[in-house]
From TrEMBL:
Keywords: Methyltransferase, Transferase. It comes from the Bacteria. Residues 118-259 form the tRNA/rRNA methyltransferase SpoU type domain. One of its GO terms (molecular function) is methyltransferase activity. GO terms for biological process: methylation. Pfam families: SpoU_methylase (PF00588). This is TrmH family RNA methyltransferase. The keyword Lipid metabolism does not apply. The keyword Acetylation does not apply. InterPro entries: Alpha/beta_knot_MTases (IPR029028), Ribosomal_eL30-like_sf (IPR029064), rRNA_Methyltransferase (IPR051259), SpoU_MeTrfase (IPR001537), tRNA_m1G_MTases_N (IPR029026).
């Protein structure tokens, strides 16, 4: 029996063809991405697959994703080429709902705040690839959450999903908007705020005073930590630089701070 393909004119797949996915959703594409989606039980709103582009393993993965997704549609190779952001289409693409994380009294991202809690704050991040890499660093380091202020990069950008290796679906990510909102929550919860500032005399490896939860703040790629954060009670720390370079990529710097 011939497969009844869904055409590019069908409104059910229009979010895949728009320049941006709807708010709160991200496009995931390819075999590794779909293995990850199934592994973490992601909320797949719509799944598209192209039988013409799939081999045996890909067909099995498509069957599993079709059962898991809220809706699933086969498309032709021509339609999938319009959907795909890649030069070579994989035949697998999903519109995934991003989880919603919150910070409350004594809790962040569904976990209790305690003396050993560590969070990373990314202020003014401009590039989706850096945002994705920061999420991946938070996941790998065991830090409890990534907080965002003055955000410019879109969380829904497909590069965030790719650069994070899908951990954007499992890492608590909370956008506070203005630094003062994040700072108020941190103060209320008893955090030590440590700003990563080039030239600060205090080494980041020096432990904060007392047994309190810790928040590291890293700044944007071009301007660093904003003046709003510098006005918050904080400890200024720096990463010693021993070579010719005077700075690190923001995700690399975050990794040094969190693993140090």
């Amino acid at each position: 029996m011939a497969v009844a393909f869904v055409s590019a004119r069908d409104p059910r797949i229009s979010p895949f063809l728009a320049p941006r996915t709807p708010p709160g959703t991200v496009l995931a594409e390819g075999a590794w991405a779909h293995r990850h989606l199934l592994d973490v039980g992601a909320n797949i709103e719509t799944f598209l697959f192209c039988p013409e582009l799939l081999g045996g393993p890909g067909s099995q993965l498509a069957q599993a994703a079709s059962r898991h997704a809220r809706s699933a549609y086969p498309v032709s190779a021509r339609t999938f080429a319009r959907v795909s952001r890649r030069t070579r289409g994989s035949g697998l693409a999903s519109l995934v709902r991003l989880p919603v994380w919150r910070a409350g009294h004594g809790v962040i991202g569904g976990r209790a705040v305690h003396d050993g809690t560590v969070v990373l704050i990314a202020d003014g991040i401009e590039y989706a690839t850096n945002l994705g890499a920061l999420i991946r660093v938070v996941d790998a380091s065991g830090a409890q959450a990534l907080l965002l202020t003055n955000r410019q990069a879109r969380i829904e950008h497909p590069d965030v999903f790719t650069a994070s290796r899908g951990t954007v679906l499992t890492t608590p990510l909370i956008d506070f908007g203005e630094p003062r909102t994040a700072a108020a929550w941190l103060v209320r919860e008893g955090f030590v705020v440590r700003l990563a500032l080039p030239g600060a005399s205090r080494d980041f490896r020096d432990r904060p005073r007392g047994d309190r939860p810790t928040a590291f703040v890293v700044g944007s790629e071009g301007r660093g930590v904003s003046a709003q954060w510098r006005s918050v009670p904080h400890e200024a720390v720096s990463i010693p630089m021993y070579g010719r370079a005077d700075s690190l990529n923001v995700a690399v710097a975050a990794g040094v701070l969190l693993f140090g």
